[in-house]
Design brief:
Largest sheet: none
Mean pLDDT: 92
Structural class: mainly alpha
Number of strands: 0
Strand content: under 5%
Distance between the termini: 71 Å
């Protein structure tokens, strides 16, 4: 074997090793970036979830006062539980929020409410009062149970 063939083989081997080292470094950098991205996404997810849980707790503390009625609180709580991807509709005590929502979800809200004629709003208000009266005791029990439920 001649010396030039040896150096050619040695050079080819060194270049191949260098190319592999560069490839490994690139893959390690991408892996590190993905790991950072996942950690940041997980942190945002946890913060978002904590914010939703705090919102539920605030609603539960204020519900039944002049600031917040049971109907509005029930609807908001059910929507927030959905955002947490927790289905407590079958829960013996907490399921009442889902029942109230189901009984009132056909009632227009926000701008649609304002566009209703006075007679329709009166009819829907009466229906909401009836629903609240029917479920008031269960809502109070559900409030206590949800405050004690581990949402996180």
């Amino acid at each position: 074997m001649s010396l030039s063939v040896f150096f050619l083989g040695l050079t080819t081997g060194v270049l191949a090793i260098a190319a592999l080292v560069l490839l490994i470094l690139r893959l390690l950098r991408k892996s590190h970036e993905r790991k950072q991205s996942l950690e940041e996404a997980e942190e945002r997810f946890i913060k978002g979830r904590s914010h939703i849980v705090e919102s539920i707790q605030v609603l539960l503390k204020v519900v039944g006062s002049e600031e917040l009625g049971w109907m509005e609180a029930s609807i908001r709580i059910k929507v927030l539980l959905d955002q947490l991807s927790i289905d407590l509709s079958k829960h013996e005590e907490i399921g009442v929020f889902y029942k109230v929502y189901a009984e009132t979800e056909h009632i227009p809200t926000h701008d649609n409410w304002n566009e209703l004629p006075a007679s329709a709003r009166k009819k829907f208000r009466a229906q909401m009062q009836q629903t609240e009266a029917t479920h008031l005791d269960a809502l109070k029990v559900g409030k206590k149970a949800l405050l004690e439920y581990p949402l996180i």
